[in-house]
C-alpha cells in the first residue's frame, strides 16, 4: 500500500533530522523523506499539520501476562495499549505463568503476536529455570525458538558462579542479557524504599545499597565474559555511575530508568498508595534528582514505562500484599514530555531515549525514518492537552498513580511496517 504523510514535522534521532516535510511509504518502508511529486499515487494521504512524526517507540520491559490467567490483561489488551501510546516494538518480560523458560512458551507468544499484528514483539527468555536462579535454562533451545534477549525479569541471581556461567553462554550466542541488579539478602522482603518514611509507615524497607552492591557484582562478572548487559530500570545515581564507569572502560553495558523514577519519589507512596508500589521502589527526592541529572547528562540509554498491569481485584490488597508494578505504557510519551517541559531534555533527546536508545541497548535494529527504513512511526500532537483518566486506557491495568495529572502530547497515528495499527 502507498501512503503519504504531508506537512509533518519529522524528528529522527537516528540522524538528527528535524524539519517539516512529507513522507511517502511504499511496501512498508520509507520511500521518500522530502518533497513528494503531485503525481505520486497513494491509497491514503494523512494530514500531518501540527503533528510530529518520529520512529516508533520501543518498550523494553512489558509484562503482558501471556501466558497467564487473564484477569490482569493479556497480550491483546496490552499491545492495544502499547500502540495507542505510539509504541511499535515491545520486549516481553519472561515472568509469565508459566515462565518463559521453554520453547513452547516462546512459540505461543510469537504465534499470538503474529495473529494480533499490532506492535512488533521480541520475546525474552528466562536466564534460569523458573527464574529461580538455581539452574540455567535450556538457552540453546530458547535461542532456536526465537529468543532475542535473555532476562531474569525482576529476580536477581544469588550465585555468582551461576551468573558467570550464564553470561558466558549468552556471550557465545551474541545476545544481550537484561538483569535486575540487587543483593537479595540486603533487599530482604522490602516493599518500599528504606528510609525514615518507611519506618513511620511501618513498612519493610528495601535499601538502595542492595542495588548498588548488586550492580557492582554483575558488572564485574560480565567483564569476565564480555557479555553485553542491559539494566533497564535502575533507581539510584550510584548504580548509573557504575554503568558509566564500565562504559568508559569499554565494557558493553547500558542502563535505563523507568519514567516513574524520574517523576515520582517515595513521598508518592503517601497513605499506603498501592499504585505507587514498584520494583525497584521509588526512592528519595535526592535520588530522583540524581537520576534526572544522569538522564540530562546522557548517562542513561533508555526510558521505559516498565509496564506491569494488574486487575482491579488487587485494589483491596494491603500495601504489603499488593504486587509490584505500574501500568503506563499508553502514557509513556506524554509522561516523558514532562521532562521536556521541565527543561531536562530537548524533544529530540527525549525521543531518542524512547526509540533509538532502547534499540541500541537491546541490540535491535535502530529505528529510523531515513529512506529504506521500515515504516514504524509514531505521529503525535505535542500540544494536545488532556487530563489523564486511567479508565480511558486500553490496558486492563488501572494501577497507576497519575490519575488526574494534566499532560500534553496525544498520539494520533501509530504505523507498523506502513500499516496504521492505531488511529485516534
TrEMBL record:
Keywords: Pyrimidine biosynthesis
Highest taxon in the source lineage: Bacteria
Domain Amidohydrolase-related: 143-421
Entry protein name: Dihydroorotase
Signal peptide span: none
Taxonomic lineage from the root: Bacteria, Pseudomonadati, Pseudomonadota, Acidithiobacillia, Acidithiobacillales
Calcium listed as a keyword: no
InterPro entries: Amidohydro-rel (IPR006680), DHOase (IPR004722), DHOase/Allantoinase_Hydrolase (IPR050138), Metal-dep_hydrolase_composite (IPR011059), Metal_Hydrolase (IPR032466)
Organism encoding this protein: Acidithiobacillus sulfurivorans
Entry keyword annotation includes ATP-binding: no
